[in-house]
Amino acid sequence: MARTPISGTQHCLRAGDYEAVIASVGATLRTLTYGGRDLVVPFEADEVRPAHRGVTLAPWPNRVVDGRYSFGGAQRQLALSEPARGHALHGLAVWLDYDAVDKGPGHVTLEATIPAQTAYPWRIVVRTTFSLGPDGLTQTVTATNDSDSPAPWGTGPHPYLVAGDGRVDGWTLELPASEVLAVTEDRLIPTGLRPVDADDAERFDFREPRTIGSAEIDHAYTGLARDAAGQAVVRVTDASGTGVAMSWGAACPWVQVHTADKPDPAVSRLGLAVEPMTCAPDAFNADAYDYDAGLIVIEPGGSADASWRITAI
User: Fold this and answer.
1) Are 256 and 62 in contact (CB under 8 A)?
2) Is residue 83 over pLDDT 90?
3) Which of 161, 229, 248, 262 has its CA 20 to 30 A from that of 43?
4) Residue 304: exposed, middle, or buried by beta-carbon count in 10 A (0-12, 13-18, 19+)?
5) How far apart are CA 258 and CA 265, in angstroms?
6) How far apart are the first and last CA of the chain?
7) Beta carbons within 10 angstroms of residue 56's beta carbon
8) Dist CA 42 CA 21 (whole Å)
């Protein structure tokens, strides 16, 4: 019997010029290509997933500050999975091994259960479908609360988009967001919403497409402009005009954008993280902020879903 790779069972999908590989650990988009061209930063099947590349985030995206939150009248303390900054990062499902419950040549549906635990005492069944078609790769995430009390919830993906050759600096970004969440420099703790052109437009305002250059971004955006179909669309292109687009509907009013700056130059700024989110960073502490953090509360037996799509340009 063949050994299962480190990243889990590999689900290979094909449709036209698109090919994708979904790894079962974390319901992770490990590779996505169009005509052989990478649309996301890939990693190897027998590699521990680096930098959360392509993982499905649940039951919260981004950070819970200090790992502490209050819900339903009880104080909770989550494990600090981002020890350098002292936060609980990207939820509890990133290392769960999802089971395939349905599969075809161009799609796979994976399912895992987040068990009730001391810091998050709700059982949540997470089901996600990856589907390839002429318009690219669509992922849908559905969470069902299999508990007897309401549960806080949030989700999102974590792909690093690739426009073409080179690195983030030479690519053009179109980001239709009018507000950015200011954060502290050291720990990225939210301090308040600002217009993208209020303080450092060169760093944050990409409503009109322009080159990213040396801008360092690791921020959440909202105030998203949407097309006639209700979709927000982020586009990243290289000098030749080829690239990748990511789109999503009203279920995700936030998006985290990260230029993937790393201390090691060999792996720094290889792709642009674009993470549509159903809620803001630290949404489990929504009452602490003077803006709508978008926290979802799923009633017992209820469900919530969200979806997004990656398309070649």
Assistant:
1) yes
2) yes
3) 248
4) buried
5) 16
6) 41
7) 28
8) 10
Read off φ and ψ for residue 146, nearest 5 degrees: -95, 50
Please check whether residue 9 is in contact with residue 112, taking contact to mean a CB–CB distance below 8 angstroms: no
Contact 179/194 with Cβ under 8 angstroms? yes
Q: How many C-beta neighbours within 10 Å does residue 286 have?
A: 18
Total number of residues shown for the chain: 313
Provide the pLDDT confidence category of residue 2 given band limits of 50, 70 and 90. Answer: confident
148 residue type, one letter: D
User: Cβ of 43: how many Cβ atoms within 10 Å?
Assistant: 19
Query: What pLDDT was estimated at residue 178?
Result: 98
Q: Report the distance separating Cα 153 and Cα 291, nearest Å.
A: 18
Phi, psi angle pair for 120, to nearest 5°: -145, 85
CB proximity list for 262: less than 8 A, separation 6 or greater: 51, 268, 269
Query: Is 283:295 a contact under the CB 8 Å cutoff?
Result: yes
Average pLDDT, the chain: 97
pTM: 0.97
The beta-strand segments (E) located in 123-250 are 124-133, 136-145, 151-153, 156-157, 160-161, 172-174, 177-183, 190-195, 210-211, 218-224, 232-237, 243-248
Residue 1 confidence class, pLDDT cut points 50, 70, 90: confident
Reply yes or no on whether the pLDDT at 79 is more than 90.
yes
CA 146 to chain centre: 24
